[in-house]
Amino acid sequence: MASVNPFNVSDSDEEAERRPNETVDTERSPSEGAPGPPPGNSFSPSADGEPPTLLLSGNRTSPSGEGIQFPAAATSVMAGGTETRVSVDVIAAQLLRDQYILTALELHTELLEAGRELPRLRDYFSNPGNFERQSGTPPAKDQVIGPGGPLNRAGSISTLDSLDFARYSDDGNRESDERVAESEVPSQERKNFKTSPEIQEPIRPLEKRALNFLVNEYLLKNDYKLSSITFSDENDDQDFELWDDVGLNIPKPPDLLQLYRSCGTPLSSPRSTVDVSVAVDFADLPGNCTKQTEVVQELEYQISLLNTEKQSFAEQIKKLQRFVFMHHQHNITQLCRNSNKFSFLWGFFPSLFLFYYFLPNTLSPVFQQTLLSFCRMCPDSRLGAEVSRIADSEESVMLMLGRCLPHIVPNVLLAKREELIPLILCTACLHPEPKERDQLLHILFNLIKRPDDEQRQMILTGCVAFARHVGPTRVEAELLPQCWEQINHKYPERRLLVAESCGALAPYLPKEIRSSLVLSMLQQMLTEDKADMVREAVVKSLGIIMGYIDDPDKYSQGFELMLLSLADPSERVVSAVHQVFIPAFAAWTTELGMLHTALIPSLLARIEKLLKQGDHGLDEHKLHMFLSGLQSLIPPLFAVVLQNAPFTSRAILNGDIPAIEVTRFPRPASPLQDVATIIGSREMLSALLVLYDHQLEHEGTTGWDSLLWVVNQLLPLLIEIVGRINVTSSICVHEFSRFFWRFCRTFGKIFTNTKVKPQFQEILRLSEENVDASAGNGILTKATVPIYATGVLTCYNQEEDRKLLVGFLEDVMTTLSLSHAPLDSLKASFVELGANPVYHELLLTVLWYGVVHTSALVRCTAARMFELLVKGVNETLVAQRVVPALITLSSDPEISVRISTIPAFGTIMETVTQKELLERVKMQLASFLEDPQYQDQHSLHMEIIRTFGRVGPNAEPRFRDDFVLPHLHKLALANNHQVVETKRIDIAMQLFEAYSALSCCFISEEVMINHFLPGLRCLRVDMEQLSPEHEVILSSMIKECEIKVENRGMADAQGSMSIASTLVGEDAKTKFLSKMGQLTTSGAMLANVFQRKK
């Protein structure tokens, strides 16, 4: 056989194509030997077979030191010439096959420099996948899996160069691989670079993330918790709970301590071995050795008999095979001779047909295995084993999924991971191993780092399906621990998933766990979690728990949870309480019979206690909290009244049942507060309502215990509580008005007219006896009046209802006016009703009644009520109804009535924009100021100055400059000549407050020089004699105004500026503010400075 020169290389690929049989494609390097067949694969070569290997040289050695020789077939092919040229492509294929990657790279580089590019090498080195490690089972020690098999290369201890950086991170973003492929660097340079102490390779991003993970793990294990927290905060872009977040496709390495202990361990050196044989002296064996020898001999005899029987069976099998072969041969011969299609071929190739239709199994097993080894089978790996082992039963499918899913999930994009949920859940349901099920459920809850709403809903749906399938025991044992582990997770989306899971799984948990462990988990999250959306989900889950709880001892805990949730600072949490928790808790207390015996009385007791403590200042937030909770209990209470009525058993769904009016009930805050939902259906509710109205109207409440409790205990207590409220607290009045409105609308018109109104009317007897004029603490001066007017009388808006409301307000206005009582209750009624435009006409009707009343006291009250109504009424009504009424009152014979109209005129100047109206009002105010009959009216001047100070900052600038400031100047000048000291000091103090409020307005230079500064100087003259502390402030204001006027002369283009902005000197500011703080006069005028012009 001629020798082959490996350096005699062909320059053309065409020459290699003409000799295709010179190469044999093999799968493994010679140093590996023949691979053992995977289990169950009949096509894998046997372990004894040696796959044929093509060698380029007879004396070339593999990296393992074994010589590589040509097989006989290859030798015979090459023996045709004395010297055979081998193509470059053959050499490249052999180098890649044997994993001589660096040699192949050098060959590729030299070919490129020579201007010749080999496609095989170009495709190989341009494909990054050839240098990626397979995910899954970690490689063996000192091996890195290459594209064609294991790459025998020792991993570096001091660097992480063997790690695979080319993968997707857990965030779904591709981490940039910044390292240079080691295969592109000569091995000697690489060795020198890594071993040189002076050269330190810079840390790579994924190396840094891996080391960060190990350092954080070390800090946690050794109780450096504060350091760990600080370290986590400084690396907030990394999740230290999941190794997969690092971004490496390798299992988690050992901890730092283990790495430290093993870093100095030297590699074990090869040692010489000696074969030693050991002999045993039978004389030294125990006495029972003889018996064992006899047993062995008996077994050997049975083996020989079985071998004989086996040979007999083998001969019979061969005879049967020959018989079958002859039978098939006869049939095929007849078929071919009788068929026209095959008769021609049968005459020439009868043996070919017989060989094609029936191939006798005469090949040896070794030859078969060797022949089949040329198939390109998957190398021996985890994935290869899974592929070759096809599942043949449901259990084996579950086992396979349990093994594969942990390797699949990390490599799926985050945006598509919810597609794996059905597969994970199905496997977790049916997998026989508890440990594997736990791992799969852990993967489910950690599938997405921060799941959004849709992803959480998908996971929850899967959890519910899992719970339905496996039952309460496994839900408790397998799902709840996953929730408990993530109760304090750093991401709120994960804690939100836990909170929602507790509610979704409530129906499928054992009742003992529901009322103990799950309830405690949710209570902990409600009190400790900082995220509003998590607490909102907790409250909803608590409501679901309350719907399934059956332990009466948990009532007190549920009540405290309700109060705790109502006190939450987040509006979305409080909204969830009213929508879910309170209806569910009320339904449970209804089953216990504690709704009207414990729950509602407890809230009323807390409201009473709060009002008793309100002498030093009422906590309006707590009152709103308790009252809103009580308001959410109205629908369940009405349902209890219907379900425990004497007529409940007579309710029949058959027949013509009238539909429920859309406006019959107030709009519920949630479907759980819908009375129809509580009762069971709208048909049943409609039937019960018909019987309910009939019972109230014709038969009464005898024997109706639940309704009697509402009428005889609840209503009197509520009315008593209302009488204790401070009428000046608009928030409290509004909250109780809303409560009574919903209460009356829910219980119906007949109930309101026959049960609610009579109790209020009995207390609100409209007579002077009900008004204590001396102390002002009669029932008509309390909040009962506005709450009855706005909460009860406005429930229904028919004509008779409106007449009743108008009559009540007229009577209250008349009674309070004639009794000289405070008007706070009437004002509160007008404010609350005036917020709704529906009642503007009605209120104007009431006021016109006061305008034309015979008593001047009533007319004065009506004039003052116009001031409250003007702000909310549209300008058309102001022009048509308000201004005519005020002008009528301004010409009243009584001076007190005329003075009472001034605040209303001022409010019109502040809010109305129609020029005609403003001129009419201006003329009326001018008549008050310029008419000689009012020159000595001290009360009128005080009211005008107070009104100017209140509305001046928000009025039209032209009205302020042309009317307000000039008349204030006149009033200040006239006050200098006032001889009555008490009147002089009253006017001076009122002017000081007015000027203080107007000083923050933009005033033109002309008005400032002609009116504002002269008015201040006149006022300073009064203050020098009456109040020196005010005189200091006025002097400072005058000085700064004069300076500003001088500056304006040099910069007219800057326009008018605020007097307040002229106080630029720090000394002047400090002096001004300190003096203002020493004053004891009211600051009401200053408060209006910051109101915007409407």
TrEMBL record:
InterPro entries for the chain: ARM-like (IPR011989), ARM-type_fold (IPR016024), HEAT_type_2 (IPR021133), LisH (IPR006594), RELCH (IPR040362)
SUPFAM superfamilies noted in UniProt: ARM repeat
SMART domains: LisH (SM00667)
UniProt keyword terms in alphabetical order: Coiled coil, Endosome, Golgi apparatus, Lipid transport, Repeat, Transport
PROSITE patterns cross-referenced by the UniProt entry: HEAT_REPEAT, LISH
Predominant cellular place of this UniProt entry's protein: Golgi
Residue ranges with Polar residues bias: 1-10, 127-137
HEAT repeat copies, ranges: 882-920
Region annotated Disordered, chain positions: 1-68, 125-198
Compartments it resides in: Golgi apparatus, trans-Golgi network; Recycling endosome
Biased composition (Basic and acidic residues): 16-30, 167-192
KW Coiled coil (keyword) present: yes
Any Gene Ontology CC annotation: recycling endosome
Any single GO BP term: intracellular cholesterol transport
Full protein name: LisH domain and HEAT repeat-containing protein KIAA1468
